[in-house]
Amino acid sequence: MALPAEGDALFPAPPSLARGAHVPSLAAYRERYRRSLEEPQEFWGDIAKEFYWRTQPSGSFLKYNFDVTKGPIFIEWMKGATTNICYNLLDRNVNEKKLGDKIAFYWEGNEPGDSTVISYSELLHQVCQFANVLRAQGVKKGDRVSIYMPMIVELVVAMLACARIGALHSIVFAGFSAESLCERILDSNCSLLITADAFYRGDKLINLKQIADEALQKCRDKDAPLRTCIVVKHLGREALVSGGRCGKSPPLKRLCQDVPTPWDAGVDRWWHELVKDASKECEPEWCDAEDELFVLYTSGSTGKPKGVVHTVGGYMIFTAATFKYVFDHHPEDVYWCTADIGWITGHSYLTYGPLANGATSVLFEGLPIYPDVSRMWSIVDKYQVTKFYTAPTAIRLLMKFGDEPVKKHSRKSLKVLGTVGEPINPEAWLWYYRVVGEERCPIVDTFWQTETGGHVLTPLPAATPMKPGSATFPFFGVVPAILDECGEELEGEAEGYLVFKQPWPGIMRTVYGNHERFETTYFKKFPGYYVTGDGCKRDKDGYYWITGRIDDMLNVSGHLLSTAEVESALVGHASVAEAAVVSHPHPVKGECLYCFVTLRDGHEFTKALRDELRNQVREKIGPIATPDYIQHAPGLPKTRSGKIMRRILRQIAKNDRELGDTSTVADPAVISQLFQQRCEAAE
Ligand code: PRX
Q1: Which CATH number goes with the domain that contains 299?
Q2: Which residue's CA lies nearest to atom 2 of ligand 1?
Q3: Are the CB atoms for 63 and 76 separated by under 8 Å?
Q4: Ligand 1: which of 319, 422, 451 to mutate, most ligand atoms within 8 Å of CB?
Q5: Is 592 within 8 Å of 558 (Cβ atoms)?
Q6: Do both 456 and 565 map to the same domain?
Q7: How many structural domains is the chain composed of?
Q8: Global pTM?
């Protein structure tokens, strides 16, 4: 097929995919979109009917206020209806849909050859057993449970067990530091922690229990002791199974490795010992559609992470519907989302959305380039993956190694490719399209946020002509708008603030324990709208293009960080008086951290100090926040009122002397000094 020229070109959805597609054409998309806006109750009601509801909604299907000037912000979908999301994901699929023997997950370990599978009925049994364990440990509806685990089946079991008994899970990505874990445990007052002994990330051993213990000690220091810590024996797992793979196959790193696991008998319990005698039956807790399902922390521009809260009913129908339509899911598909469950993508599109659709997924513990750079494609072939969802940063990383590692694997099974997490540059898009998908797989560039719960701007694979780098059009029920600085809605071709005009079922409901922060962050700037914090432009064909964050946030490898949280980690060091952090372009990560630090009197800027500062940030936040550049700044460019001028720092970081207006800088001499002392390379 001759491809259109690059740039603003349209890549049509492949006609072969239209046969049997849920949304086979642009006209079909438009018709359904129109219905979702004109008849929301019927539209979402039809989707809700696919699920089991113990009782139907008692009042209105949707009630909300998006306008802070008219009263408190609230959103309620199907309030009064009762259900259980875990029941819908597992019992309904096993008992009603007869999918008990269907594979829910192919688990693929860090080491090739280390793998296992779990069926829907086995998953149901494990979830029931663990839900009984949680109840026996005193966990009740509404309690918060912190989960800090590698990508293993027990992570899914733990989250669904929480959902089954109406407890809120708060999953903390296993790459976060002890400090970050402690902060999150305290913020939502979790009563129990679930973790694992250890795991390998590539060839690096991560002793997770040790980090979890440091976090628990920090909680104790703050007078908030946690009652129980349940530990999965993951790395040492095979030691538990007599006649397991240990003796039969060549030794794999994970197998038989009993790492020393620090233990406090008053707090710690082994997962396998607790579940041993637990019943495989567990009556679900029937929850209101508006009961809280989980908390997930995301960076906030003040530096303190926000506990984003999602609720049972709306999140269930939204993740189920987006998964079905955006990946055009069919029962025979094998779907693979490479995101970690510690992020929202792993919640919505590795766990809830796929399981709600009775899908078979790959759950991968490892890294894209371990043990070699063709690992991803060997997994695609191994499981005959049909739908593949990853992040632009992974695509850019793999692109660096050329086409050969991709082409040596067949990839014939692939039908749809997806991306998420940050804007995808057209070069990476085209490489993904041409090399990985061989021009036969559409790319769904899905724009969404932890806060939105699911896709809000996205192509549909058999319907939407694509433009490389554009998230195209809104999903059903979603009404975007672009506002100018004064809050005026812009029509036609325009660029400005991306906002949404009305709620969809999966939108967050509050910030845990701080509803005021929810209102201020998302609804105060432009009353009447949900403000995403992203810039956006709409082209002449009505396509939406995300231009990136317009607040003090940056997106490193698809992970949102706030400059304030990195600054506060830096000034926590005894030698630092002041720090200013800006985002800097990076060829693989998209953006990276460029830090300017002013030292206290008597301290010297040395390589050793730079390493200490880098470690300080890793320890406070986690390895994802490791600064690429740390520059000594004897002074910082400030306005006369003392506000740091980050706009100028960004130019200094790039060595770009186009500074714009500098008339408000209190001491212009610091600018030339900073240019002179720029870090030429990340050391
Ligand atoms: O800036 C946008 C970017 O990621 C932010 C949301 O980050 P987070 O809450 O961590 O969730 C990431 C996974 C959903 C957004 O505000 N972003 C996400 N997807 C895209 C994107 N930017 C451009 N294009 C996307 N497809």
Answers
A1: 3.40.50.12780
A2: 422
A3: yes
A4: 422
A5: no
A6: no
A7: 2
A8: 0.92
Beta strand ranges found along 109-196 (DSSP E): 115-119, 144-147, 168-171, 192-196
The whole domain housing 677 covers 557-682
Of 448, 455, 556, 591, best ligand 1 pocket probe by most atoms within 8 Å of the beta carbon: 448
| SS3 label, residue 549 | strand
The strand pairing partners of 556, in sequence order, are 559, 590
Closest CA to 343 of 298, 302, 387: 298
Residues with CB under 6 A from ligand 1: 298, 344-345, 420-423, 445-450, 471, 532-534, 546, 549, 555, 560
Residue 505 lies in a domain: no
H/E stretch holding 270 reads: strand 268-270
E strands within 486-619? 489-490, 494-500, 510-511, 530-538, 544-549, 553-556, 559-562, 576-586, 590-599
Residue 306 forms part of a structural domain: yes
Q: What is the mean pLDDT of each run of 10 residues along the chain (683 residues)?
A: 51 93 98 97 95 86 96 97 98 98 97 94 98 98 98 98 98 96 97 96 94 96 92 80 44 65 95 97 98 95 90 98 98 98 97 98 96 97 98 93 97 98 92 97 98 98 97 98 96 96 98 98 97 95 93 87 90 92 93 94 94 95 94 90 85 91 84 85 48
Residue-wise pLDDT tens digits, 563-582: 888 998 999 999 998 899 99
- Count the helix, strand and coil residues of the chain and give each as a percent rounded to the nearest 5: 30, 25, 45
Backbone φ and ψ of 604, nearest 5°: -115, 145
The answer on 352 and 226 residing in a single domain is yes
- The number of residues making up the chain comes to 683
Report if residue 659 sits inside a domain. yes
